[in-house]
């Protein structure tokens, strides 16, 4: 329930890299703190938050699961304000940013960037130019970073070092994988454990995912298949 005198709003967060996903990661924590600080100072009450994990800022907003869920919620809960940390959290691609903003404006929804509150509120030619320039700079910086990282990967690859892809469970926690294989390999009462049963056994032994919950069946499957490669 919204506090008296405060305008209801929702927070929208986005991280483009799976490495930055998780409540303990800097990106999500930083975004939440910036949005919450702005909301308090500006008299908004955050009633919901939506998070697109490992979603590129170049993906159109309509193709993002978290953003889509947010729009479905807004259609029924009466909220008409979305707060993001920065314009680049909304979108890094300039065209995506402008088309997404236009879509929200047509629906009567306000978009506020906590670090520059007037960037989406003021629709004068000057404000639009500034917004587009900032979007172009962000897009340029992202492209330059990708280019630099690719160069670094290419140099490491030339030395024979593994440089691409997320580390496997076997690399991160060999004890976990060893137990998963053992549980799956040896049946109980003549019946092999299901992937979910293996997950439950792992959880009982203190092995859970980064979110504190038992591993998903697909994660267990990857652990099991690793032994047959």
UniProtKB/TrEMBL annotation:
It comes from Microvirga subterranea. SUPFAM superfamilies: Resolvase-like. This is DNA invertase Pin-like site-specific DNA recombinase. GO terms for molecular function: DNA binding; DNA strand exchange activity. Pfam families: Resolvase. Residues 8-160 form the Resolvase/invertase-type recombinase catalytic domain. PANTHER family: DNA RECOMBINASE-RELATED, DNA-INVERTASE FROM LAMBDOID PROPHAGE.
